[in-house]
Design a protein that fits this description.
Layout lengths: L2 H26 L3 E2 H11 L4 E4 L6 H7 L5 E4 L3 H15 L3 E5 L3 H5 L1 H9 L4 E7 L15 H5 L5 E4 L3 H17 L4 E7 H4 L2 E2 L19 H10 L3 E5 L2 H4 L3 H11 L3 E3 L14 E4 L6 H9 L2 E5 L5 H4 L7 E5 L9 E4 L2 H8 L8 H8 L18 H11 L4 E4 L3 H9 L8 E2 L10 H11 L5 E6 H4 L6 H7 L3 E7 L4 H10 L13 H7 L3 E5 L4 H12 L3 E6 L11
Parallel strand pairs: 2-3, 2-4, 4-5, 5-7, 6-7, 9-10, 9-12, 10-11, 12-13, 13-14, 15-16, 15-17, 17-18, 18-20, 19-20
Antiparallel strand pairs: 1-8
């Protein structure tokens, strides 16, 4: 090879190196679409599942999800997506994520988002929207989504700047994990999702301002130390603060009885000597006696809703919650529940033996008769058999008359083992929520109890259950009517109207979805069928025909 040839090759090698270096530099600073950045952030935050339904305006995110480790769960309706994310959050105590397109898709999620908002469930709700360049021109499927979501979320953001979006997304996720819980809505127009940003933005850290007010804490310590008849009233905020162990340790150390709101049932096992059970409407005699006769109530992580207040007397209340808007006590502490429990753990308290002895004389369980042996099957007997047969399964509850029987008959022994929309109570919650619960807790069996009315509002999600082959036992209580509405109509409105249901063949409907199904209508058969169903490790629908004329006991 000549010297000239060698020189030419050397020059070419140098040029190749320069070109490669330029390509490397270009690749290292290559921008990425906002849709891809969003998915990368979710991955980094440990999000495992997204529940959704695709549509035109959100397709850039679905394109990004194709390359993601995050599993997308295709729900059959956007309401189901929100309920499934809600159930996932309640069962995992981590934020749930749901996604939909703009216009009809977003509006279909409203029921589920309102449900989560009422119970302060941490959801990241992502919707697409018509391109930003077309907004305000009344184009196809355009609607002011943010105005709809604003009153049912902590925040409803319209993302119109892709660079600013990264900070908003990160702060939203941080808030859901460490701040005040509830749904946060991100509405992102399709063209904004496709705009490119500098990937270095993904590495920037964010902070959220968590406000706390300890002004009256010394007064709190003094009141707790003087109390002879104290009561801990616990809400689901204890769960979201991951403070269950702190609370139970405090109660046991100082021998303070514990009552709960509905969403917090099981925070302390209801067979624990210090547990009084549910307080308020449908509360136990023991819990309501304590609420009416305590000399101090320490209400932590709860709202003090009108139903809870039904069990409270004229008593001094110390109210602790990170959400300032719900504080309603004589002394209010805006603070993280876990931090509060740590701060009061070493307080000196008075002996409570006399107080506990007084409470022991009150009933801790409701005296409900279930020993019926005739047919038609009584619904309370059916519910009792479901509860006896489900072992340590998680129970997901819908809305309807069956809800009352479960409230009165179930003893909740573990946190997050009874999943139910307490504050909003929409019919149709149970089936999609059970999907989220099953995915969040794959080592647990899941039993969902739903009425024939509520079942038909979201029964399309049987297809999702079948596709995922989730081992969910669906106990469908069939009284051929909207039972609790019929009862109210007969009591207060002169007779029943428009509550009779001409139902389909539920067994055939489940079978059409490739789900095994069985109908039972006799005492004893429900228990055996539930027990056998749990052994299948497969989806199963049990239609339980009950007495359509049986009424629920009304609260006092």
């Amino acid at each position: 090879m000549s010297d000239k040839t060698t020189a030419i090759l050397t020059i070419m090698d140098h040029h190749l190196i320069i070109v490669n270096n330029i390509l490397f530099i270009m690749q290292s600073v290559a921008k990425i679409r906002l849709a891809d950045a969003l998915v990368k952030i979710l991955e980094k935050e440990g999000i495992e599942y997204i529940f959704g339904h695709p549509g035109e305006q959100i397709l850039p995110v679905y394109q990004a999800l194709r390359k993601s480790s995050i599993k997308h769960v295709l729900m059959r309706h956007e309401q189901g997506a929100a309920h499934a994310a809600d159930g996932y959050a309640r069962a995992s105590l981590q934020p749930g994520v749901c996604i939909a397109s703009g216009g009809p898709g977003a509006l279909n999620m409203v029921m589920g988002v309102a449900t989560a908002n009422k119970d302060s469930i941490p959801l990241l709700v992502i919707t697409g929207d018509v391109p930003n360049s077309l907004k305000g021109e009344n184009v196809f499927q355009e609607v002011d989504i943010n105005s709809v979501f604003e009153p049912i979320t902590l925040h409803s953001h319209l993302i119109d700047n892709p660079e600013e979006a990264i900070g908003i997304i990160k702060k939203s996720l941080l808030t859901l994990k460490a701040g005040k819980t509830g749904p946060i809505h991100l509405n992102i127009p399709r063209d904004i999702l496709q705009e490119e940003i500098d990937p270095s933005l993904l590495d920037e850290s964010v902070e959220i301002g968590i406000k706390a007010d300890w002004t009256d804490f010394n007064q709190v310590k003094g009141l707790i130390g003087k109390s002879e008849r104290p009561l801990l009233l616990v809400g689901a905020g204890v769960l979201w603060a991951h403070a269950v162990a702190d609370l139970c340790n405090f109660a046991e150390k100082h021998q303070i009885p514990v009552a709960t709101t509905y969403p917090a049932r099981g925070v302390i096992s209801e067979d624990h000597p210090l547990s009084l059970g549910l307080l308020g409407t449908r509360g136990t005699e023991r819990a309501n006696h304590a609420g009416e006769n305590a000399d101090l109530i320490l209400a932590v992580g709860c709202r003090l809703s009108e139903r809870t207040q039904k069990g409270l007397g004229d008593v001094s209340i110390i109210h602790v919650n990170l959400d300032k808007t719900v504080l309603n006590g004589n002394i209010n502490i805006q603070a993280d529940v876990k931090e509060f429990m740590v701060k009061i753990s070493e307080i000196s308290t008075k002996n409570t033996d006399k107080w506990l002895d007084e409470l022991q004389k009150q009933d801790r369980t409701h005296k409900i008769r279930t020993d019926f042996y005739e047919t038609p099957l009584k619904p309370q007997r059916a519910i009792k058999e479901i509860l006896d047969g489900m072992d340590d399964s998680i129970l997901v509850n819908d809305a309807g008359s069956h809800t009352t029987w479960i409230t009165l008959l179930m003893e909740v022994l573990e946190p997050s083992s009874l999943v139910f929309s307490g504050g909003f109570g929409p019919m149709g919650y149970g089936i999609p929520a059970a999907i989220g619960v099953s995915l969040a807790r794959p080592l647990k069996n899941v039993v969902v109890v739903v009425g024939d009315g509520g079942f038909q509002m979201t029964s399309q999600e049987l297809a999702t259950i079948a596709e995922l082959d989730l081992p969910i036992i669906i106990c469908l209580i069939n009284n051929q009517s909207l039972g609790i509405i019929r009862q109210w109509q007969e009591l207060y409105y002169g007779g029943a109207s428009q509550v009779k249901l001409e139902n389909p063949d539920f067994v055939k409907l489940a079978t059409a979805h490739h789900i095994k199904a069985k109908m039972v209508d006799s005492p004893g058969d429900v228990l055996v069928t539930v027990e056998d169903g749990l052994k299948l490790n497969k989806p199963l629908l049990i239609e339980i025909k009950v007495d359509e004329n049986e009424d629920i006991p009304l609260p006092k």
